[in-house]
Amino acid sequence: MSLSTRQQIRTLIRGRRQAISSDQQIRYSNELVERAKQLPELSRAKKIALYLATDGELDAQPMIEWCWQQGIDTYLPVIHPFSKGQLLFLRYAPTTPLVHNQYKILEPRLDKQMICPVADLDIIFTPLVAFDEQGQRLGMGGGYYDRTLAPWESKSIGPIAIGLAHDCQQVSALPTESWDIPLSTIMTPSKIWRW
């Protein structure tokens, strides 16, 4: 399928996501925390990456705060300043200074001492625009998470990738490209999907 079809899906699902009211967003993000408590992977995790929501994404902030209460070190993605298309993950705490990146998304101010190598993360919770019944994930189109996850896709070591999405972001089938990294787990406010 063509890239225009992927873009049409992005436009459609982003519209669904943006139509969620702020009250519903709060409810869904709290339901996400309850769902996260059921994840065996999270009960063993020491270092996890999450994200700060933008553009109607499922808000992970309540989950981040719950992880802090559990003593789980939490990291956020930062666009790499020198390696184009790559992500770094920086420690995120309540006092971490945040700045807007080129996409107007908040991220921790770059501090080399706060960087966690991807290999040291237990779980990378990824945002996504859409997902299908086979675990395919459609992102915003920059490929940042696909590049980050590619080295770990077929390995038994390294971080586990778990997608986070609203239930309304599911579609029956997504057009895929060779660089797309499918996810074995996606969590929505109402369900944990496994493949």
Automatic annotation (TrEMBL):
| One Pfam family in the UniProt entry | 5-FTHF_cyc-lig
The residues the record assigns to binding substrate are L52, E57
As for family, the record states: Belongs to the 5-formyltetrahydrofolate cyclo-ligase family.
InterPro entries membership: FTHF_cligase, FTHF_cligase-like_sf, NagB/RpiA_transferase-like
Instruction: Specify whether Nucleotide-binding is a keyword of the entry.
Output: yes
**Which co-factors does it depend on?**
Mg(2+)
What GO terms in the biological process aspect are recorded for it? Answer: folic acid-containing compound biosynthetic process; tetrahydrofolate interconversion
Its protein name is 5-formyltetrahydrofolate cyclo-ligase
Q: Which reaction does it catalyse?
A: (6S)-5-formyl-5,6,7,8-tetrahydrofolate + ATP = (6R)-5,10-methenyltetrahydrofolate + ADP + phosphate
Task: Spell out the molecular function terms from Gene Ontology.
Answer: 5-formyltetrahydrofolate cyclo-ligase activity; ATP binding; metal ion binding
Instruction: Enumerate the residues binding ATP.
Output: R6, Q7, Q8, I9, R10, R137, L138, G139, M140, G141, G142, G143, Y144, Y145
Q: What is its EC number?
A: 6.3.3.2
